[in-house]
Input
Amino acid sequence: MTAAVILLFVLALVAANLPWLTERRFLLFAPPADGKREWLRLLEWLLLFGVAGLLAAGLEYQVIGEIYAQDWEFWVVNLCLFAVFALPGFIYHHDLRRYLRKRR
Output
């Protein structure tokens, strides 16, 4: 694997987990007093999926010189892979964080 592919995987892994690891809205705005709603986390996750896809297309263009057209199957597989990448942050936010707080 080239360095660009490894970098892309690492950035996708981080991007997939960010909505569940931070309370800030869209990573920029102050968190609401009652916490971030789940639909907002999912919206952020989908937007970060798009950002990761754009980054991948940019890397593909830079390395190969053109962007190959992809069918819907490619995007479904990538969305599922992005969901798998998001599992550590999701589990931390919904289960592990509460468990660790109770142990204190």
Summary: The chain has one domain: 3-103.
